[in-house]
Specification:
The chain is built from 14 helices and twelve strands. By secondary structure, it is α/β, with parallel strands linked by helices. The chain has one domain: TIM Barrel (Alpha-Beta Barrel), CATH 3.20.20. The strands form two sheets. It has an eight-stranded parallel β-sheet. It has a four-stranded antiparallel β-sheet with strand order 5-4-7-8. Strand 1, helix 1 and strand 2 form a beta-alpha-beta unit. Helix 7 packs across helix 8. The two termini are about 20 Å apart.
């Protein structure tokens, strides 16, 4: 797919002042329209785990009832029957796992989310979602379809310069041969569900579909893992054939090999760059603006990095000077670079618009606790900030049309 030139803001609904799809969500859409933004990007919408991570959700299909503005709203038997008829693949399994009332919550979510999405669409704002590569080891998917998951090894990332032990995520790995034997049915239904809820979706850890790090289940670090081959293009082609398209962004960050780039380009998927990493002194640095591609998404920072201000504050004086950014507002320097980039889509986390430091960081990879909890204060996104962002968006030729 080819993105049109545009821009948007990254803010998960849990970071709204009330953390729900209430009036604050609609006010945020109004602010996006005033700021000239075309996209609202969110994290995965599934039920988070016990520490709030949406990347270890208890369901690859169900939405989180914690986002509901009206969790006690009435749901009719007809609504329930209609919802189950439209989602036959997973609703029975989810109800069996989550218990009585679980499907009513999904009806409530669909009702609230659809209303919010329609409101956003009328204001030329569309939604970008997120598809985690893995699911929870204690979730409905493993319980309902155990034959689709491997045993003896778990997911993670290999040791690197930042972490000598690697990352031990602990999620169950897929039995790709079993998925292939079903024609990737579970994956087709998973993508179908995501495409019902959003206009475009980021595919998390895209390199894992080429090859992934498998760690012996008994190990406590990722040091003894090894690379195993993923499904490659076969999976995505199956989804594309079944659903008539592949509106996704490849999160091609991390240890990116030629095979990963080849798969991304073979599927004609937009890749990603992060401007915090644009100043690394390498002629081939993909994050440097001179190396940006048109079919790409340029982020100032992400939910897994520090905020722009927090990152800038962590640099030495010499490093700060080398960036060429204004020390009084480095965030607006990166926003300008993102807007001027040749990358078709520019995305800015709300924290960067607000010039917030590390205390507003969403996630610290490798740390279990203390993440996913940052929230906006009501009125923090002002008319003045909207006007300034609109000006940068106009200069970058990214206004909605």
């Amino acid at each position: 797919m080819q993105l049109r030139r545009s821009s948007g803001i990254f803010l998960h609904p849990t970071s709204l002042p009330g953390g729900r799809l209430d009036a604050d969500a609609y006010r945020f859409v109004d602010w996006l329209e005033a700021a000239g933004q075309s996209w609202w990007q969110v994290l995965p919408l599934g039920p988070p785990d016990e520490v709030g991570s949406p990347y270890r959700s208890t369901s690859a299909f169900a939405a989180s009832p914690l986002l509901l503005a009206e969790p006690q709203a009435a749901v009719s038997e007809r609504e329930l029957e209609d919802f189950v008829a439209r989602h036959p693949y997973w609703t029975g399994e989810w109800e069996g796992f989550a218990g009585a009332g679980a499907l009513a919550d999904q009806v409530r979510f669909e009702r609230e989310w659809t209303a919010l999405r329609d409101y956003a669409r009328r204001r030329t704002v569309r939604l970008i979602g997120d598809i985690p590569i893995y699911v929870s080891d204690a979730g409905a998917d493993v319980e309902a379809w155990p034959e689709l998951f491997a045993t003896g090894e778990v997911a993670g990332a290999p040791p690197d310069a930042l972490n000598a032990n690697g990352q031990h995520w602990g999620n169950p790995l897929y039995d790709w041969a079993a998925h292939r034997a079903t024609g990737y049915h579970w994956w087709i239904e998973r993508f179908r569900r995501v495409f019902e809820l959003v206009d475009l979706s980021r595919v998390d850890h895209f390199r894992g579909y080429v090859s992934y790090w498998a760690i012996p289940e008994r190990d406590t670090t990722a040091r003894s893992g090894r690379w195993r081959r993923g499904p490659g293009a076969e999976l995505f082609r199956a989804v594309e054939r079944a659903l008539g398209g592949l509106p996704v962004i490849a999160e091609d960050l991390g240890v990116i090999t030629p095979a990963v780039r080849q798969l991304r380009d073979e599927l004609h998927l937009p890749g990603t760059v992060v401007l915090l990493w644009a100043f690394r002194p390498s002629p081939s640095n993909p994050h440097a603006p001179r190396n940006h591609r048109v079919n790409q998404v340029a982020y100032t920072s992400t939910h897994d990095t520090d905020t722009t201000v927090g990152w800038f504050e962590s640099l030495t004086q010499q490093q700060r000077a080398a960036t060429g950014l204004d020390p009084s507002e480095p965030n607006w320097g990166l926003i300008e670079i993102a807007m001027q980039s040749r990358a078709a889509l520019a995305i800015v986390p709300a924290q960067d618009v607000l010039a917030l430091s590390s205390e507003a960081r969403m996630n610290r990879p490798g740390e279990t606790y203390g993440n996913w909890s940052w929230r906006l204060e009501r009125g923090q996104l002002t008319d003045e900030l909207a006007a300034r962002l609109r000006s940068e968006t106009t200069r970058g030729r990214r206004m909605p049309r």
